[in-house]
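Memo to structure team: turn this sequence into structure tokens by end of day. - J.P.
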Amino acid sequence: MTVAVSARQITKSYTSHLALDSVSLTIPEKSIYGLLGPNGAGKTTFIRILNQIIRADSGTIEIFGRPLEPDHVNLIGYLPEERGLYKKLKVGEQLVYLARLKGLSRKDALDRIRFWFEKFQIKEWWNKKVEDLSKGMAQKIQFISTVLHEPRLIILDEPFSGFDPVNAQLITENILELRDRGSTIVFSTHRMETVESLCDHIALINKSQVILEGSKTDVKSKYRSNTFLVEHSGNSLQLPPERYQVLQQNPLAENLYQTLIRAEAGIKGNQLIRELVEQTEVHRFEEKLPTMADIFIALVKGEGDEALKKHLTEA
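Reply from structure team:
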């Protein structure tokens, strides 16, 4: 695994408040990395340190194998939660100005702005003032300003704020495209459905500390409870009680039932399917895995692994 960002033992205090407490994170290159946590957990503080807006009290950060340095700013595109466009400037002029700050020539800036305006179908916005745009429209311009210089590392703090579902989907598609073209994307969000659909890796920060980090697949696998949801014909299932526990059964329609089954540790889904098809017609079969929202809520509440697994066995 090639690493884009390696943070080790990052600590930051504000007067009497400990914002980050020995936080260590490893962000793989060319991935989408979700930085999760409740309000006040320390996510924005970490992002500001990464952008060199503030300094850590202690700890180290490497970007693409080099210690964090001022010139890294040109490798980073940052979309802050609090938007920073100049309200009186026209959209086109403002984007050219911001692109020039990132080192682009005027010609390259104009070419790339035209590309994004066509992509977002907003060519008529060039001479509009930012103050005349809706929140969602301004958000599109801010997103474009973040990616114009084709940064290797893109940091998005609540990027979907202000977007309706159609435009949220548009931004989602472009985030995926940017990753596929080689960018590493770190974003902080409270939208768990976005984490489900976008993230390759996640970190959960709570009370200034990292309490969970890993690939989304590995995290979900860690909290699996070997529980399966089956839709089948007939309500009579004869499963060996030493291997399977029927937790719940509900009628769905005439002669169609939904059954929640928990298998003993080590029993695979294929084994259960083989036992089921010998005695009933199976219409639907799926393992009941935790959602990122399940994991987030349980761990932030301090319920622990077993409480989360128990929750997953409840229909």
